[in-house]
Write a structure and sequence with these properties.
about 260 residues, mainly alpha, disordered N terminus
């Protein structure tokens, strides 16, 4: 952890000089580290209770930092133990009483108890259970969010498909309506043509009826002419023969006029 690299062991620095009691330096470092740990531990407990520890980056960072500081504090306490041993081995140099040595050992004992309290809180059953529960909730939440996202995508795809189908149906209906309109127009045109043809047929029928009437009239006239021809053939009168020829020419002219009109 980063906390382990931020400073060298205090007692090791103090031991470089035999004029300085290493305990004094180590005690100050231990006190400072312990106050820092206790401050962070208080915030850690608050976040443990109020945040989802699996999702809170602040809790994760704080947890890692406290673990690093506890390791650093453990090294410092080991150095304090060494300093006490050094003093005990050099009583004539440091001139400490038994009471002072007992006070130093009590300081180490109390510091280790505070260290253990925080360490046990970080790794205890209650905190572990809370962090496990938070991880489970976070996993379920992520799954739920993925399911919601999948449902939203499915709904969007279904809506898009429905809109596409509705668009195609409208196009088909419009196409059918256009085809029906064209068919209606074609039917109207056929009706007009039929009416025109019917009018033409009726006109032709009237003309045929008129032609038949004219033909009947001409046949009647021809009968009269033939009778006259028969009577004329029985005579040798040139005037009657010329009149007959005129009637024949008149008949032919009428026939020609009938067919031409």
């Amino acid at each position: 952890p980063p906390a382990l690299a931020h400073r060298p062991p205090a007692v090791a620095m103090a031991q470089l000089s035999t004029r300085v009691d290493p305990f004094d330096v180590a005690r100050d470092e231990v006190d400072a580290t312990m106050r820092k740990i206790q401050f962070m531990h208080k915030e850690w407990k608050r976040l443990l209770e109020t945040e989802n520890t699996a999702e809170s980056q602040r809790f994760k960072d704080l947890h890692s930092e406290i673990v690093g500081e506890l390791q650093l504090l453990n090294y410092d306490l080991q150095e304090v133990d060494n300093s006490i041993l050094t003093v005990e081995q050099n009583r004539e140099k440091f001139h400490l009483s038994d009471e002072q040595l007992r006070g130093r050992r009590a300081f180490v004992t109390n510091s280790r108890a505070a260290h253990k309290e925080v360490q046990d809180d970080l790794t205890g059953r209650r905190a572990t259970a809370k962090m496990d529960e938070d991880r489970r909730k976070s996993l379920l939440s992520h799954r739920h969010q993925e399911e919601l996202a999948q449902q939203e995508r499915s709904a969007h795809e279904a809506s898009a498909y429905l809109q596409q189908e509705q668009f195609l149906q409208r196009q088909l209906i419009n196409q059918q309506e256009d085809e029906l309109l064209e068919l209606s127009k074609a039917t109207q045109r056929v009706g007009l043509v039929a009416q025109t043809l019917n009018g033409e047929i009726q006109t032709q029928q009237r003309m045929l009826d008129e032609l038949n009437d004219d033909m009947d009239e001409q046949v009647d006239r021809m009968g009269v002419v033939m009778k006259g021809v028969g009577q004329i053939l029985k005579t040798s009168n040139k005037g009657q023969i010329a009149g007959l020829m005129g009637l024949i020419l008149l008949f032919v002219l009428e026939v020609v006029l009938i067919f031409n009109t």
